[in-house]
Amino acid sequence: PKEGDALQRAQQSLEAIEKELPRPNYLPHPGAEIKPAATPPKPAQRAYAEARQLLRDGNAREAVGRLEAALRLAPNSPPILRMLGRIYSDTGNRVKGALYYARAVQNDPTDVRSVFGLGLSEFERNNFKDAITVLAFALRRAEQGADADTHLLVRHYLGMALAREGYDAADKLIGYIDRA
Questions:
Q1: Distance between CA atoms of 64 and 70, rounded to whole angstroms?
Q2: Cβ(112)–Cβ(146) under 8 Å?
Q3: Which class for 21: exposed (0-12), middle (13-18), buried (19 or more C-beta within 10 A)?
Q4: Are 73 and 43 in contact (CB under 8 A)?
Q5: CA–CA separation, 134 vs 124, rounded Å?
Q6: pTM
Q7: Do residues 167 and 131 lie in contact, with contact meaning Cβ atoms separated by under 8 Å?
Q8: pLDDT digits (tens, 9 = 90+) for 77-113
């Protein structure tokens, strides 16, 4: 049972927890103006579309090649960076995946799927404090209009990261899930 300082720490609100945790450089500071990224040129969009099809067909290696070609044409394109992050994370290279996700978020923090991918990557690598910071940011962005599935996933993984760090705020996010 928790008591004293440990009990007070565990009972903090999500807002208080966020204030005490360090903020990664790739996330904008509260109050900063956030603008979506520019649309990539048509050749980069075509290469991205080809990569998506290759990935659907099970050709991850070829998809990476097409995405790298697209990235040369549009080096700051969040969808391209996000897909590279997803492929590398899904194939076991979580560190490289996290680097691509971080670049995607840095270039467009309004892209909730990139922010979620980065938070999930931090969670899967047991970086729960960073996961909390990133997923809390994603939650605020998701509440401003993300699709319902992404919103639920963000809530779930944020709650799980909070639980792993011993915060009771997890109960408000995933109280319906048995964490035992």
A1: 10
A2: yes
A3: middle
A4: yes
A5: 13
A6: 0.83
A7: no
A8: 999 999 999 999 999 999 999 999 999 999 888 888 9
